[in-house]
Specification:
By secondary structure, the protein is of the alpha/beta class. It has 13 helices and eight strands. It has an eight-stranded parallel β-barrel with strand order 1-2-3-4-5-6-7-8, surrounded by eight helices. Helix 6 runs parallel beside helix 7 and helix 8 packs parallel to helix 9. The longest helix is centred in the first third of the chain and has 18 residues. The two termini are 31 Å apart.
Length: 310
C-alpha cells in the first residue's frame, strides 16, 4: 500500500514527471500500456484489436489542463480522432473515453461549464458516426460535477457512458441511481489516492465493494461494463449474467490495452463482448504511473526493464 500511495503521489509531481519521461528506457515499458503517441499509431492498434474480435474505447491522454486553450486542444484532438475512426466503419465497436479535467473541469472560473461546453461537440460527433462517449471518473472531488455533465449529455445522447470507482464509499448509491434502462456504466476499482473519509483503504474491502456494486448493475436494467482484470471478479460477472439470463450484447468486459491480452482473447472467443481501453498521446505520464501503482507485476516489469537497459 505504501508503494502504491507513493506512485500515485508521484503521478502528480512535475519534477518526477520530467525525470521519468526523459529516461529513454521508460519508452519500451510505456509501449506495453500506451498505443503510441500519434493518431496513426493508435489507429494501427485499433485495426489490430478489432481485427482480432475485440471492441475498443480510445483515450487521448491528457488531464488537469490549466487553460481554456489547452481544453480546446483536447476537444479538437477528440474530434480529429472521431473523424479518423469514421472510415473504419466500426460503429459501437469503437467508442471514446474522455477525462473532463482535460476539458477544463478544474479551471478556476467556470470549469464545470467549460468542460460541458467543450465535451458536448465530441458527444455530438460520436452520435453522428454511430458510436458514443464514456466519461472517465477521476478524483472523488470531481464525482458530482462529472455526474452532472453526464446527466446533461444524456438528454441528447442517452448512450453516453459513466464510470464508477468501487473504492469510494458513495459508489453503491451511485450504482443504484445509474442502474436504469440503457444506462452504460463501467465499474472499476479506482486508481487515485483517496483519504479514508471517502474511500476504502484495504484491498479486500475494495474487492468486496466492487462485487456489491457489480451485482447492483448486473441485476438492474442498464448495460454494465466490468473494468477489471481480477480473475475472481471476471468469474463473478460470468456467474451473474448466467443467473440473470443476460444476452451477450447487454454487458461488457473492459480491460486495459497491454494487460492480460490472452484473457481478452479468451473471453471474446467465448462469445462475450470485450472492449480494450486504448490510450494514446504524448501526455502519458499520469496514466503510466497509475498503471504501475495498480499491480505489483507492472512495477516489477518496469524495474526489470530499467535494470536491463544496457
Amino acid at each position: 500500500m505504501l508503494t502504491q500511495k507513493a506512485l500515485l503521489a508521484a503521478s502528480r509531481r512535475p519534477t518526477l514527471r520530467r525525470v521519468v519521461t526523459g529516461t529513454p528506457v521508460t519508452r519500451r515499458v510505456v509501449d506495453r500500456f500506451v498505443a503510441g503517441e500519434t493518431l496513426p499509431e493508435a489507429l494501427s492498434v485499433v485495426r489490430t484489436l478489432t481485427g482480432g474480435g475485440l471492441a475498443v474505447t480510445l483515450d487521448h491522454l491528457g488531464e488537469d489542463v490549466t487553460t481554456r486553450a489547452e481544453a480546446q486542444g483536447t476537444r479538437d484532438a477528440y474530434l480529429a480522432l472521431l473523424d479518423a475512426l469514421a472510415p473504419l466503419d466500426l460503429g459501437r465497436r469503437a467508442e471514446v473515453s474522455v477525462k473532463l479535467s482535460a476539458f477544463g473541469q478544474a479551471l478556476p472560473l467556470g470549469g464545470h461549464d467549460v468542460a460541458l461546453e467543450l465535451v458536448r461537440p465530441v458527444a455530438e460527433a460520436a452520435t453522428a458516426m454511430g458510436t458514443t462517449v464514456t466519461l472517465d471518473m477521476e478524483e472523488s472531488g470531481t464525482v458530482d460535477s462529472t455526474l452532472a455533465v453526464l446527466a446533461e449529455l444524456r438528454r441528447d445522447h442517452p448512450g453516453t457512458g459513466a464510470v464508477l470507482q468501487a473504492m469510494l464509499h458513495r459508489t453503491e448509491d451511485d450504482a443504484r441511481a445509474l442502474a436504469t434502462p440503457g444506462s452504460r456504466v463501467r465499474l472499476v476499482k479506482g486508481a487515485y489516492d483517496e483519504p479514508a473519509a471517502v474511500a476504502h483503504q484495504d484491498k479486500a474491502a475494495v474487492d468486496a465493494a466492487y462485487a456489491r456494486c457489480l451485482e447492483i448493475l448486473v441485476r438492474g436494467p442498464g448495460h454494465p461494463m466490468a473494468g477489471t482484470h481480477d480473475p475472481r471478479l471476471i468469474e463473478l460477472l460470468l456467474t451473474l449474467v448466467a443467473e440473470t439470463g443476460r444476452d451477450p450484447d447487454s454487458y461488457e468486459f473492459q480491460l486495459l490495452y497491454g494487460i492480460r491480452p490472452e484473457e481478452q482473447q479468451r473471453l471474446a472467443a467465448a462469445g462475450h463482448t470485450v472492449r480494450a481501453y486504448v490510450p494514446y498521446g504524448v501526455d502519458w505520464y499520469g496514466y503510466f504511473m497509475r498503471r504501475l501503482a495498480e499491480r505489483p507485476a507492472n512495477l516489477q516489469f518496469f524495474l526489470r526493464s530499467l535494470a536491463t537497459k544496457n
